């Protein structure tokens, strides 16, 4: 899909971070947009930055709501007449807790948004994507979907599941020769609002800035990599120097991976200071 002009892209979680960067960059390439976010205010800010409301369709809803997502798919097709690209970007995380400290309610909420939201987004649009000569589904996993990450068990679980689902569907579409490319994206630390938006967070701005130093990739850089992957029809993308290191370790030595993650987790827990128990808003 080298030429993106006049294509139509659906992006969830477009109110901030990678989702917003993708919307802005794709619009500049001549792509028409259908955007979603849980936060109407931030979604409107994205549309304002785009500056062309005529080519943007929007809906505000929780992606874990199956009925709303499937209706959104129908509305997008009705509005734009076709869909070429679906980017399931919406995601939430919880605070810095061990698996035993994380409540079942938190598991349910995070998996509802991160995993089920991605599954709904893929399956709701798949029939119309198959009608195109070439089309793309992009599912945002994480490097935590390559290596299980301590004190992020629920987030890591959701991201492993996204990877597994995406890889399975990617091969199925190849078997059926549909022209649909399914891409699993695995960023490392990205400077977005996902940590800042954790409900009930007591992290100070100083602590947040220290955490940001451990997130080497900007949302704009991540968006550039994702767009390039769409154009090159890649099925897996590793984004950021930290993600590439962890990916290498996962392939080279499981023992080294575990030691690295132990040191990394201890360092981040010291930086985190106060703990947070509730999952954050979608971003």
Characterize this entry briefly:
The chain is of the alpha/beta class and 283 residues long. The protein has helices spanning 17-28, 40-50, 66-80, 104-129, 153-176, 205-212, 219-232, 241-252, 254-272, and strands at residues 8-11, 32-37, 56-60, 85-88, 135-140, 180-187, 190-191, 217-218, 236-239. It has a 7-stranded parallel sheet, with helices on both faces. A two-stranded parallel sheet has the order 7-8.
Give a written overview of the molecule.
The chain is an alpha/beta fold. It has a single domain, classed as Rossmann fold. It is built from 9 helices and 9 strands. α1 (17-28) packs parallel to α2, α1 (17-28) crosses α7 and α8 (241-252) runs antiparallel to α9. Residues 198-202 and 274-281 have low confidence and may be disordered.
Set down the secondary structure blueprint.
Blueprint: E1 8-11, H1 17-28, E2 32-37, H2 40-50, E3 56-60, H3 66-80, E4 85-88, H4 104-129, E5 135-140, H5 153-176, E6 180-187, E7 190-191, H6 205-212, E8 217-218, H7 219-232, E9 236-239, H8 241-252, H9 254-272
Parallel strand pairs: 1-2, 1-4, 2-3, 4-5, 5-6, 6-9, 7-8
């Amino acid at each position: 899909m080298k030429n993106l002009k006049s294509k139509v892209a659906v992006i969830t979680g477009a109110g901030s971070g990678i989702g917003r960067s993708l919307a802005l960059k794709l619009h500049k390439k001549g792509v028409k947009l259908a955007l979603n976010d849980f936060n109407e205010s931030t979604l409107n800010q994205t549309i304002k930055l785009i500056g062309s409301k005529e080519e943007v369709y929007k809906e505000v809803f929780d992606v874990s709501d199956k009925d709303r997502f499937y209706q959104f798919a129908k509305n997008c097709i009705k509005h734009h007449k076709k869909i070429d690209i679906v980017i399931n970007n919406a995601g939430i995380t919880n605070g810095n807790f061990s698996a035993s400290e994380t409540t079942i309610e938190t598991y349910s909420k995070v998996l509802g948004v991160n995993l089920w939201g991605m599954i709904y987004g893929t399956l709701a649009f798949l029939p119309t994507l198959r009608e195109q000569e070439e089309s793309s589904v992009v599912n945002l996993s994480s490097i935590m979907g390559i290596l299980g990450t301590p004190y992020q068990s629920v987030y890591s679980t959701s991201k492993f599941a996204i990877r597994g689902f995406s890889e399975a569907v990617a091969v199925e579409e190849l078997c059926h020769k549909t022209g649909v490319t399914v891409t699993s994206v695995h960023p490392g630390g990205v400077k977005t609002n996902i940590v800042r938006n954790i409900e009930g967070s007591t992290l100070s701005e100083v602590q947040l800035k220290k955490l940001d130093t451990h997130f080497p990739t900007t949302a704009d850089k991540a968006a550039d990599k994702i767009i390039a992957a769409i154009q090159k029809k890649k099925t897996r993308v590793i984004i950021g120097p930290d993600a590439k290191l962890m990916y290498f370790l996962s392939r080279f030595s499981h023992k080294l991976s575990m030691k690295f993650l132990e040191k990394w987790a201890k360092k981040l827990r010291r930086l985190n200071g106060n703990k947070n128990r509730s999952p954050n808003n979608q971003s």
